[in-house]
Amino acid sequence: MKKSASPGVPTPRKDWPNVLPLEGEIDLHVSPTVTASLNRMVEKKPKQLVVDLCRVTYIDSAGLAALIEAMQKVEAYGGKFALAGLQETVRSIFEISRLDQVFQIFPDVDAALATA
User: Fold this and answer.
1) Domains in the chain, ordered, with CATH?
2) Average pLDDT for residues 15-37, to the nearest whole number?
């Protein structure tokens, strides 16, 4: 099994503070830092929070759980939570787990932000 490509803490983009770009493999080892980053963003209660997955090559159940938890927190205060830019391999994981029916998924960040 490959090591996760993203050892650093994910941070929101400066030009889009409500967008969290992720990269590499979002697995058991990386998901705690993803959860921490999402929690910091959720605390600010943005109207919309977008997770950019265009550079994510794999996501496991721990990564999915981090996204589900963040989505529930955002929806609890009335915000919108979206995923953007899923690669085909990652999209198939969402489809197999039927989470493609739970999350709002957009082809890219621009499309997701346009729904705000």
Assistant:
1) 19-113 (3.30.750.24)
2) 93
